[in-house]
Amino acid sequence: MRPTCSSRSSAGCRSSRSTHVWPLHTTARAGCHSDDSTPSPTPSTSLRTGLPRAFRAIGSSFRRPSEGAFSGPGLRRDEALTRHGARYNPRMTALNEDQRAILATVRRFVDEEVRLRAAALDAQQNPEDCFSWELVEQAHALGIRTMTLDEQWGGLGLDSLTTSMVVEELATGDMGFAVVMAQTFKIAQLMQKAFSDEQRARILPAIAANPRSVLAIGMSEPGNGSDKHTNQPVPFATYATRTSGGWIVNGLKHFISNGNRASHYLVMVQTDRAKTMANGSTCFLLERGHPGFTIGRVHDKMGERLANNAELVFQDCLIPDANVVGDVNRGSEVFAKFSPQSNAYAGATVLGVAVTLQRKAIDWAKVRVQGGKPLIEHDGIRAQLAEMRMLIDASRAYIHRAAWLADHPQSGWDATLGSLPKAMAAQAAWQIAQWTMEIHGGHGYMKEFGVEKLVRDAAAFLHSDGVNRTLFLKAANAMFR
After folding, report:
1. DSSP letter assigned to residue 27
2. Regarding beta strands 264-270 and 281-287, do their DSSP bridges make them parallel or antiparallel, or are they unpaired?
3. What DSSP assignment string belongs to 179-248?
4. Element (H, E) at 296
5. Which of 121, 183, 292, 382 has the most crowded Cβ, counting Cβ within 10 A?
6. Hey, do 53-213 and 217-331 end up sharing a CATH topology, with the first three levels equal?
7. Which residue ranges in the chain fall short of pLDDT 70?
8. Which fold is adopted by the domain 217-331?
9. pTM (2 d.p.)
């Protein structure tokens, strides 16, 4: 695929109003490649040279409000936040010209690259073979991989609402690849919020420069992960003991997205074993290959296979004080900066699967004849397709509200938005998956029709990024504390 896209000529682009080209990032700079092989060649592209003026300024127009610019169309940030205690305004979700151009380019990348490779990668027996460095490098060449890094670190500082739209588009091609990117997007945002100035200067340029830099965060463990939302919270089993100049970490994390692929990791570790994970844990920064830190087994998953999940193993791993993120024993405060974007992007990921399922259901209903007429002419099927549309649109609105408010918390953020949008989208996708299988009849159960892969993918987010029941409990705790 070529690294530029005219949305007027792109196959599969729904918008014909924009003629901008994209990629959106600077030419890849020399950097370390922290994995097992040398990156394949990627197009050399410059962000600022030769692009329309709208894209030469795109970094400032989409910068998150904390960086000094309001991301919604038509209003300056100071106007939006001072009008009678402004609250979330659905009008702000309307696409502007730059967003349409970005999404058109992402859509072309999905149509021409991601979707065409997804089935073959998904079918690999070894879960590690399902991952594609080539797709990651192409995402880098197009500016996708680094788009949530601020301009000073080599990215665009894209706002969370637009990012959630990009995640949904990626997931219409494949959920697993969308997860690889979404994890990188939101962890990059977290690093910029939580890092010290020294950590930002040391780490973020390296992430931007390396075409293979994807990111991971280590929370879940074999014995716990959701416990902090229960009435009997426990500490993390992975623990650190103080030593001269740092901490010695021992333990095991599992189910970690990008766990065997990441260049950089944020890991939650218990530093006060007499307390719970909420008030006795600390966030540590690790780079791939750090002494005492190794990758365990890669989990063989039912769906979402283009994203690898793996164990992180710590054996007398000495982490220097310079790699403590935030304050000691206050890791939960770091994680609190992560969940707003995390839940919105997780919801957008599974929503992309729902969108693809509905498209398949509609396409099949148009050509499959039963009772002397296409299925789509049967009232029951038509009503079911309309209900799919309702679930998709309602989930998208909820996700967009959460994503926008993640950047504008003073305009009406509440803690349930860090839990419920993903749960809603996951339930919607699972319902749509079942209906799509029913509409396809026996064909829906056969691999060659592609529905069964989407069913497997939809099932993943009933559990991934927080089990739905746990997320409901988390929201209830926020509502009734």
Report:
1. P
2. antiparallel
3. HHHHHHHHHHHHHHHHS-HHHHHHHHHHHHH-TT--EEEE---SS-SSGGGSSS----SSEEEEETTEEE
4. strand 293-298
5. 183
6. no
7. 1-94, 225-232
8. Butyryl-CoA Dehydrogenase, subunit A; domain 2 (2.40.110)
9. 0.84
